[in-house]
Write the structure tokens for this entry.
Amino acid sequence: MLNDRLLVELDDEAAERRTGAGILIPSTAAMGKRLAWATVVAAGQHVRQVEVGDRVLFDPEDRAEVELTGRTYLLLREKDVHGVADPRAGGEGTGLYL
């Protein structure tokens, strides 16, 4: 990866969702603007706040898809990331830093 680029893989849960009542909502359903979660697979040398393995929150409208070795990844700029999940939060707060 070059400069401030991130290669991310969408989380499995991004494909479809269930409502509280158990109704399945496919990923193709039209909704308002909704952010998505993905895991960072690779990062460029100028990325400062995100590391490989981090779970990031981003706008799925601002993405470019790429296929490598039969798997689909997304290419983002670091500035397009809205938040990073912090697995080390220890149960305090939301577990996110923005």
Q: What stands out?
A: DSSP finds no helices and nine strands in the chain.
